[in-house]
């Protein structure tokens, strides 16, 4: 019988059961927390931010952020597996993206292993405040997720979906024009 020689990080990135408490992964999470601390401590006029503070994540290197996308305050992204955020995505305050999960088998949980599944958010998606998106969920292009929803399965493109669990309540027409250029307005250039 062949022995699995992969590291726990390699297993994590593959979405397989892994031990999150190896020295390598503990070190990477600690380094990420140092960077996040600095990011969350920047003054509003120090840098343009696509993610409002406070922001929290596990590793940071598994988050793929599209152009002209924005996250309001208190985004949490548990990125043990990739989290893909498309272009022109708007995330309300307190959105949680949980690519990490735990086994339902009680013995596996006692063994201290976990796993993850990628989250995919399409282009031009608006996710209302307080929404939770769980491991493995995909949200299609142009869709709207109502505030406080819990997305536990895939949501198709061009719909409004709400609730716990999140369900489609309305179909939308696909956009027919290219997006306008977004202008980043801050309190400082509004006062000029």
UniProtKB/TrEMBL annotation:
SMART domains: Mac (SM01266). It comes from Rotaria magnacalcarata. Belongs to the transferase hexapeptide repeat family. InterPro entries: Hexapep, Hexapep_transf_CS, Hexapeptide_acetyltransf, Mac_dom, Trimer_LpxA-like_sf. This is Maltose/galactoside acetyltransferase domain-containing protein. Keywords: Transferase. Residues 9-56 form the Maltose/galactoside acetyltransferase domain. SUPFAM superfamilies: Trimeric LpxA-like enzymes (SSF51161). One of its GO terms (molecular function) is O-acyltransferase activity. The keyword Transferase applies.
């Amino acid at each position: 019988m062949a022995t699995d020689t992969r590291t726990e990080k390699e297993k994590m990135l593959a979405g397989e059961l892994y031990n999150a408490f190896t020295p390598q992964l503990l070190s990477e999470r600690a380094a990420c927390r140092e960077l996040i601390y600095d990011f969350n401590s920047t003054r509003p006029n120090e840098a343009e931010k696509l993610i409002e503070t406070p922001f929290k994540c596990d590793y940071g290197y598994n988050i793929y952020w599209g152009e002209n996308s924005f996250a309001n305050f208190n985004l949490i992204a548990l990125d043990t597996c990739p989290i893909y955020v498309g272009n022109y995505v708007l995330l309300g305050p307190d959105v949680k993206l949980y690519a990490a999960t735990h086994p339902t088998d009680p013995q596996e949980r006692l063994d201290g292993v976990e796993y993850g599944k990628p989250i995919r958010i399409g282009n031009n998606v608006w996710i209302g405040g307080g929404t939770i998106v769980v491991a493995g969920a995909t949200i299609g292009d142009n869709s709207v997720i109502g505030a406080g929803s819990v997305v536990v399965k895939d949501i198709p493109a061009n719909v409004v979906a709400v609730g716990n669990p999140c369900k489609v309540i309305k179909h939308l027409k696909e956009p027919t024009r290219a997006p306008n250029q977004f202008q980043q307005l801050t309190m400082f250039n509004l006062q000029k």
